[in-house]
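Work package 3, deliverable 3.1, input record:
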Amino acid sequence: MIISKLNLNKALQILNESAQVFVPAFEVIEDRAAKKSIREKKFLPYREDLEVELEGPNTVKPPKDILFPNVEKLYQYKAAGEDSYIRETLPEETPKILFGIRPCDMRSIKSMDKVFFTKNYVDSYYARRREYVTIVAIGCTETDRTCFCDSMGIDPNTAPGADVMMNRIEGEEAYLLHAQTEKGEALLKNLESLEGPSENVKAIRTDCTLKIRKIPDLDRKLAEMFEHPIWDKVTKGCIGCGTCTFVCPTCYCFDIDNENYGTEGCKYRCWDSCMFSDYTRMAGGANPRPTKKERLRNRYMHKLSYFNERYGETLCVGCGRCIANCPSHLDISEFIEKSSAVDPKAEVYTESIRAAQGKEA
Amino acid sequence: MVIGHTCTCDQNPLLPALCRVIDVKQETPDVQTYTIQTLDGKKPFSPLPGQLAMVSLLGVGEAMFSITAQGEDYIQSSIKRTGMLTDAFHEMQPGQEIGIRGPYGNHFPIEDLKGKDILFIGGGIGIAPVRSLIRYCLEHRADYGHLDILYGARSRKDICFKEDCLENWPKEPDTSVYITTDVPSDDWDGHVGFVPSYIEEVGFRPEGKKVVLCGPPIMIKLGAASLLKLGFAKEDVITTLELRMKCGIGKCGRCNIGSKFVCLDGPVFTLAELDELPDEK
Ligand SMILES: Cc1cc2nc3c(=O)[nH]c(=O)nc-3n(C[C@H](O)[C@H](O)[C@H](O)COP(=O)(O)OP(=O)(O)OC[C@H]3O[C@@H](n4cnc5c(N)ncnc54)[C@H](O)[C@@H]3O)c2cc1C
Ligand code: SF4
Ligand code: SF4
Ligand code: FES
């Protein structure tokens, strides 16, 4: 199906009648302290007056909060003797459409699906939200300076798993849409009235910006590099702020806590970050990941090695968000590049000898 | 590493069931055992030995505990006071409502242990998970060989499950019980010394024997060294790990060691399996 750019607003309006549509659009945020306003691109609930931008750079934050909110209620309770109760609070059954998500972000949702749907337990909250979401993905027409999806095995022009795939048509102000699932077919049926002529159209193909070497078996190589001195070097400058995990489309770690109002209250979960020191701290103060080195190593290893071992795919989709937003300019793509030059066995050996000699001296 | 839980697609795995503490027993000055039942007097669930329960004091917090025993219509956990949450647990009286979810984690390899002699070694509150397996073996006595139980506590008053350790277990057929305390006291005429050296002193023989070793990290480390010295293989020494946990279902990311999640793939591991994991225990 072909839809002209001129009809895009119309299409979003039609879709918004039967579902809540989220689109990438600009929001103006007033920064009072700096006395200026910032324009941030993010997924927002569709409104007619919204400044939608499907193309251009990707959103600053990924759309993951629509499936996995920053804070989510798990249940309500009352602790009052005989009157005590525990009441499940599952998300509402509201159909939602994620319109215009990028291939990297689609891949990240597929990874989240693996986490929340497999390995013995299905997460009821995620499952409910996922069931009610239809995804329209769009092929990139422009990539940012920090994009390296291609090096992580993701094609910026296709989005397997999305319900509808949408690509810009070459030389025309129009999009080519095709359904990839039943949900997608149903969605496109709604838009039939807007269908444009489709003769000899060709979708635009885009190339990813940042090229880093594809390292064969990077996951296994890193597993051998656990004790390697490279970790001391890459951690330099990290202030443990956790920004990298909050902007990452595939970071899914969460905390569970409660909020009380007298005898009643609710249990909720919220995003957490393995970059925080109290993440693994136990009662009595023991901490298996006591310094930033162990924490950053865990984050990178989780993305590039542990997840592969457990779920058969890498957990970094090369969206570049952690690179673009780290206040200390840490760069996971640079780390991947650097590790390609490492001989895991040899350097550990020389470093440990050096360390031993250092101690003797 | 067997995963003892099957799919719960139709159940919400993060939702606790409202249960009631029907009995509170003071084991030691800082350990209490809670007997827990559903509100309608049933057993909350049927765990396998070594499995865990997430126990929630509504309005205060929740934490993971070993299920130390179970009966027809109850499960039991023993909780040591170590901080804010466990202090609050110790305020509980019989009749207290609590939330329970589980059972979580793998379990002791009850099948592989069949036909073998078993040496159980516990230190401090670490006897809690071991007790679930000892009870299981005693209930299925014919399936298992000779049972040795070695338990170390700080002093006599710190011995958990005194009835089991000092009276019941020593009377069981084909069972030897060795109790030691770190420090001597007037009310204790038994062995005095740390667990690892007691292991060597008794000089257990590795032939046909599996070991279950649970306790504080330092005891596991030194105890394992003693066992290896006596000729035990790492494959035959089974232990449990404790890491901070939140979800218990392998999703929240909290308890990973490398690609493994202790709440799901553990807490039971052999020393050989631990050797395969990165050093973040
Ligand atoms: C697999 C497993 C089995 C366990 N079995 C037992 C048992 O049978 N008996 C027993 O007494 N204790 C057991 N524990 C330890 C028990 O969970 C902690 O002692 C308890 O959480 C600490 O509680 P606190 O809130 O009083 O400490 P605080 O210092 O108040 O802790 C603050 C917060 O940190 C979290 N936390 C701190 N340490 C731990 C920890 N080690 N594990 C999980 N969460 C932690 C708690 O959730 C709490 O909300 C087990 C832990 C694990 C992981
Ligand atoms: S964003 Fe950068 S500084 Fe902050 S925790 Fe991540 S790597 Fe460290
Ligand atoms: S680790 Fe960085 S580049 Fe990789 S998916 Fe997460 S935010 Fe994107
Ligand atoms: S406690 Fe959440 S993953 Fe283990």
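The longest strand of chain B covers residues 17-28.
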